[in-house]
Design brief:
By secondary structure, the chain is of the alpha+beta class. It has a single domain, classed as Alpha-Beta Plaits. It contains 5 helices and 17 strands. The strands form 5 sheets. Strands 1, 3, 5, 8, 9, 12, 13 and 14 form an 8-stranded mixed sheet that branches. Strands 10-16-17 form a 3-stranded antiparallel sheet, with no helix packed on it. A hairpin with a 2-residue loop joins strand 6 and strand 7.
Length: 267
Amino acid sequence: MPLLRIQIYQPQAHYRIPFSYQRRLTYPLPPYSTVLGFLCNVCGINDQRNELYKRGIQELKIGISGRFKCKLTENLWFRNVSLEAHRNTYGYAQNRFRNGQIGHIGGQSPIKIDVLQDVEITIYLYHLDFEYLNVIYEHLKNPVNRLGVLHLGRSEDWIVYRNIALLSDESIEYKRRDGNYQFFFWIPQQLYKFNNDNVQINWDLFDGVNYTLATFSKIENYEFHYNNTGKRQYDTINAKLNDGKILNGYCYFDKELQLPVFLWGNI
């Protein structure tokens, strides 16, 4: 069961929690949809009919863990281009002069945004067909087809690779080892288990706050317009956000890092 392990460093990152506005909250880890978007960027996939997307990305089993040094809250101005905001700023719709200068349309709204500092993310990828995993590995090492700057979270949250490695079958073990690993983990309810009748991973035994997370997306009516910026509909899953205390249950471990690995994927 070879896995692909990606270790990433980010000077700062924001993984927005949906429906947070005046203060934009962040998860401590990127959700699955963010990691999937990152992989599509790396592989140059901008069409959901792409063979690598349909046969490779969509069949991946994904594990995500990470930690950060601290969290800061920044104060920002966001542009509001509504007609009401424009009138509140300039007095009437046809005016763009204020204090003797021409300004942008609309108005501005003050917001707060939580930003993680010195972020370390570890991503595990598994595919039943090793050839697809190897293709993704080659794209990660040499992202010549990338769609844009490699980032996780906001477009300005650039990444630095710490390590990219293909792990052999012997690199992953199944065991119980209670401890505080000082990493956050996504523990999906739909845990993927390798073909082994002796593996018993009980989701209910692990602590964590339950979240509904976005995973894959489909663009509405894509077959009629083929516009990859169209409205998206996301699939969701249940997953626990664990703060590093792994107790009472068996799971997979990365032997080298001695780090628990919890894989999610379509079974």
